[in-house]
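Subject: sequence -> structure tokens, single chain

Hey, anyone have a minute? Need the predicted structure for the following. Not urgent.
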Amino acid sequence: MKKIPPKDKVSCKCYYQCKALSPEVKTTLFRQFYETDEATQGTFLMGILQVGNIRRRRHGSYDHPENSKRQVSVYYTVPNGSGKHVQYTEEHSHLIHEHINSFPRSESHYCRKKSTKEYLSPDLNINRLYRAFIQKYPNTNISSKHYRKIFKKDFPHLSFKHPRQDTCKTCDLLNCKVKSGENGAKMKLELHHRKVESALSYMKHDHTISQQVNSETCTIFIDLQQKEDGTPKLHGPLSTPSTGFVAKQCPTAEVKDSKIGTHSPFSFLCFGFHFIPTSWSG
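Reply:
Had a minute. Here:
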């Protein structure tokens, strides 16, 4: 097979025939030029430049060659200010802080450990806070987006409390006594929390053992099934949220029983109606 050598690529097609120079000469000229300072380079270039007349113009829609440059490129109008970003200052942030801090907040008393988390009323949310802010300051230009941004950024430990139903009546009672300043209530509340933590640790331990292979321990939990519509059929002298929540599940006449560590839940009928006093049924 005949091999055809590649053609020599012509790097320059100028009038002065630069292609006639060898690569060694080009390298020498390149090095000599860039080894000099900037002033010497400029003097050398100005000495070899020649000023000549324009030989050809590209005529457009103008009548005279001197008008070849574009005179107007954009049609300008006076902006009306729509879409302009509102500049918020520190005074706006201070106003939002003052409004959020005006609402009462509480700490969670279902944990023995000290928590920095604080909660607002479950009836509130950010939209309701902003509506209250607009009612208090009707002439402000603060948007709901900026109000939400300040709430999320500057109040990371502040949240809205969820309405509780299945709460501990002992925690509720002792917490009220602590707020009222009763002697010994704080110690009783902490002792109660310690008992709860101990019971939870025992439950987790039994749960871990029951999940082991060939374990002879079976851990089950029994929970009253909640009604689908959520409306209680049973009314009576229920004084705490916990007892009320549990009692209103009894009319479903069913208890969910599931083995922890297995995937075979089963149900059986509840005889709650037999044991509940008839005076509660109204």
